[in-house]
Amino acid sequence: MDIFERLRQNPGPLGQFADYGEGYYVFPQLKGEIGPVMEFQGKKVITWSINNYLGLANHPEVRKVDADAAAEYGMAYPMGARAMSGQTDFHAQLEDELAEFVQKEAAYLMNFGYQGMLSTIDALVSKNDVIVYDAECHACIVDGVRLHFGKRFIFQHNNIESFEKIIKRARTLADKQGGGVLVITEGVFGMTGKQGILKEICDLKDTYNFRLLVDDAHGFGTLGKTGAGAGEEQGCQDKIDIYFSTFAKSMAGFGAFIAGDKEIIRILKYNLRSQIFAKSLTMPMVIGGLKRLELLRSKPELKDKLWHNVNKIQKGLVERGFDIGGSNTCVTPIVLNGSPIEATLLAKEMREEYGIFVSVVVYPVIPKGMIIFRIIPTAAHEDEHIEYTLNSFAEIRGKLEGGYYKRKAEELNIDFIQY
Predict the structure, then answer these.
(1) What are the angstrom distances between the C-alpha of 211 and each of 203, 206, 214, 262, 267?
(2) Does the domain at residues 3-53+300-412 carry the CATH identifier 3.90.1150.10?
(3) What is the pLDDT of residue 414?
(4) What's the mean pLDDT in 112-129?
(5) What angle do CA 246, 140, 259 make, to 5 degrees?
(6) What residue spans define the domains of the chain?
(7) What pLDDT score does 415 carry?
(8) Is residue 417 over pLDDT 50?
(9) Is CATH 3.40.640.10 the classification given to domain 60-298?
(10) Half-sphere exposure of 66 (CA within 13 A, CB side)
């Protein structure tokens, strides 16, 4: 069969929705300044789908520094990869300040988080090493693990009994092969909002002799006394061997970094293929990153406002009988029962009738029969946004449970491939 013909016949779990949902449910366009209220399809909507945790995307100091850096250096500088011609004092300064912030000896900047995680995993392990990772790790971790030529094991999500059972097997196999063991998990799981069981895993390091890589994209800037992340929150930051985070969440930008022991970070930066063979992070983002990090350190009221909003909306949802899946972070899932068609109809009504834009997740990302609406509170939201959203969800849940969307779905008669 021709490759293109196969693609036409089987467009994939998400591709099958293209005709029905593109531009609305998939690849939607939010317009206007990044904030709690934006424009969608010509209407103002309260936005709960942007990871602008601390509200820095449109902070006046951040906007000024970004603009000044772009005016002085342009968007191209520095040209080339870091290893060839893309190094600057500002890159080194941001690395030093990030390392201090997350309580590590050294850090290394990356141009993008997804590719950075792929290369970090690839650079850390050899074919004789064994990888152990959580079943619900982010796609960047899963894809990084797929690059590994050696053995890999999955442990049940946040299940320490499963982890210990798997780590014993991994340690035995690694010893037999003359390799080591790399454990990978997340500080915060972005779909459920649950923190990874970092402390429990770290408590087993001495027993089973493994190294720990933690993706803390959602924890950086939001968790811990200083904002250093889930490891600080759980009192085990010093036990994390390689700390990874992106700038796409609390830092409201792009890029990423890894941090750890100085010697190991130095070795990694000479072996991270996605950085060696790619352009250096641009100067506006580096200088802008320094300003963002300064605000993380100097304005704790931003994190305080974020958690005021998180606590208010999560408490309101629980009081109204909603299942938020045990989230103990900013990520707030609303778990409902229904089909993908019901979910899309519900999301459409939320946007068009209630003026609320929230991401919806259905099968095959989650099990059949489940609907998850993932709310991302930020420091920019106000109490009135929260109250209105709580009341709207209460109304729309009643319609869902009463079969309204099921009846509407039957009228549409749209078939989806069952993957």
Answers:
(1) 12, 10, 10, 15, 16
(2) yes
(3) 56
(4) 95
(5) 40
(6) 3-53+300-412, 60-298
(7) 52
(8) no
(9) yes
(10) 15
The amino acid present at 388, given as its one-letter code, is: Y
pLDDT tens, residue by residue, 398-410: 888 888 888 887 7
Mean pLDDT of 210-227: 97
The amino acid present at 69, given as its one-letter code, is: A
Tokens of 297: 């350190």
Whether residue 416 has pLDDT greater than 60: no
The C-alpha angle 349, 352, 358, rounded to 5 degrees, equals 70
Tens digit of each residue's pLDDT (9 = 90 or more) over 321-332 = 999 998 999 999
- Written as six digits, the tokens of 212 are 């720990």
pLDDT band at residue 418, thresholds of 50, 70 and 90? very low
Q: What is the pLDDT of residues 153-200, one digit of tens each?
A: 999 999 999 999 999 999 999 999 999 999 999 999 998 999 999 999
One-letter identity of residue 344: T
Whether pTM exceeds 0.85 = yes
Cα distances from 326 to residues 2, 299, 329, in angstroms, run 47, 29, 9
